[in-house]
Amino acid sequence: MSMSDPLGDMLTRIRNGQGARKAVIPCPWSKLRENVCKVLQDEGYIRGYKVVDGENNKREMSIELKYESGQPVIRELKRVSKPGRRVYQKVTEFQPFYNGLGVAVVSTPHGVMADHRARSENVGGEVLCQVF
Description:
Layout: H1 6-19, E1 24-28, H2 31-42, E2 46-53, E3 59-65, E4 67-68, E5 71-72, E6 77-79, E7 88-89, E8 103-108, E9 111-114, H3 115-120, E10 125-131
């Protein structure tokens, strides 16, 4: 059976892994998932990720979750643009998430990046998810 929302699946795996206090979670690999993990790592929400070759030439990612004094660093992880309803915003329409404490991950023509970087590069795009 094919998956209709691979990015939503990855975000749910991260939420469930943090709820179970896992250190590392496995996830199927894709370019979009890897780019979102890179943004989460750059913003300090996860420790890191590794791409591993699995069975039958299928790649997998191992995502290292981050905790601060026993509590997960990610308090809220929400998918914004879904397969049934895509959400696109111009650079002038970006709203600060949690008064600038949170980050929106945006897919732009210049690649996947955080909302503050998209504002500085003056480019809009599809809002993938919001992290706080």
